[in-house]
Amino acid sequence: MTISCLRSKDLLGTEGLSADEIALILDTAEALRPIGERPIKKVPALRGRMVVNLFFEASTRTRFSFETAEKWLSADALSFAAKGSSVEKGESLLDTARNLQAMSPDLIVIRHSCPGVPHFLARNLRAGVVNAGDGAHEHPTQALLDALTIRRRFGRLEGLRIAITGDITHSRVARSNVWLLKRMGASVVLCAPPTLLPPRIEEMGVEATTDFDAALEGADVVMMLRMQLERQGASLFPSAREYYKRYGLTAARLGRAKPEAVVMHPGPMNRGVEIASDVADSARSLILEQVSNGVAVRMAVLYLLLTGHTWEGETA
Q1: Which residue has better confidence, 242 or 238?
Q2: Which of 125, 176, 178, 196 counts the most CB atoms within 10 A of its CB?
Q3: pLDDT digits (tens, 9 = 90+) for 32-57
Q4: 281-310, pLDDT tens digit by residue?
């Protein structure tokens, strides 16, 4: 079965997406990618629509790629910064959002350190809501751009072995990727030190191990994650040097994966901690392709949520 629109006005996570909806977003992103390769990167697809970007956490790739996607589709974009706003004066998040709603935005893109904030706003606002990362919970557009990047390299997701290694406990990227990749038929192995691997994580339908070399065996994709020090609250590994010795991706270690295996990282990277520079910059690295595909995926999400139908090319 194929579908022509998403079932909701919001994109809050990958856990609730069907395989058809995931395929629709990826296919739409693929169709929109050529816009970024043109001399004039602009189509009137969302002209007259207003998108508000609410980022309560620091962001480079996610924020700028959403803003780029909005501009390329000709949406009117407003970016909100918590610093200098009424939030600093004690205004509640809901009151801030309701005041923004009174200005009639069509969509709100939000990143927040507290899990569940996008869901809370979606229940209380008429505007659509896109989760750009909520605490250690989910980051759906990152998982979608990762999926697009993998699919463009291998032509499929089904049947691939994806090894995700790093701070699994605090990673919203890992959670969103697990839900999406499993739904699309890939097998996932999660690897981390014992202190950074959630208990009973296998109940999500994945393998789990503390042995990095074992996780790499036969992998098609090796996805590295950084240490989420801002969420850990305490040191959960002896030192960066010790972590790199046991869990850092080096060229020698990568040799345990399949010969055609590729390397990914959602960023920001800590070179010499979770990944060696020669691996991050190698021909097997898709890290910069992930960034490029992020704009295409976010264009697709914006377009599908705001128009309710599939992309059929430019309209005047």
Answers
A1: 242
A2: 176
A3: 999 999 999 999 999 999 999 999 98
A4: 999 999 999 999 999 999 999 999 999 888
